[in-house]
Amino acid sequence: MASAANANLNAVRETMDVLLEISRLLNTGLDMESLSICVRLCEQGINPEALASVIRELRKASESLKASENSTS
């Protein structure tokens, strides 16, 4: 039973490594933790396109805040 669990864990790690490499090739800017969260959300039924849209909007908002902080400094 333990070997089956180890095989499953290794498969999950390998899958996440492949997804991270694809993410890097596509210049998503997601790190392993963020990508893992996105995968889990999609597994829970979240629409991937909606999730991508939210991430883009959050990045725009973050950039706007950083720009406004830099202009007031």
Structural account:
The protein is mostly helical. It is 84% helix and 0% strand. The chain is built from 3 helices and no strands. The protein has helices at 2-25, 32-43, 48-72. The longest helix has 25 residues, at 48-72. The mean pLDDT is 93.
The number of E-state strands comes to 0
What integer value in Å does the Rg equal? Answer: 17 Å
Give me the strand/helix succession.
Answer: HHH
Biggest sheet layout:
none
Helix content: over 70%
Note the gap between the termini. Answer: 59 Å
Task: Kindly report the average pLDDT value.
Answer: 93
- Output the number of helix runs: 3
Shape: elongated
* Poorly predicted spans: none
Structural class: mainly alpha
Give the strand content: under 5%
List the helices and strands and how they pair.
Elements: H1 2-25, H2 32-43, H3 48-72
Structural features:
single chain; 73 residues; 0% strand
In short:
The chain is an all-alpha fold. 84% of the residues lie in helices and 0% in strands.
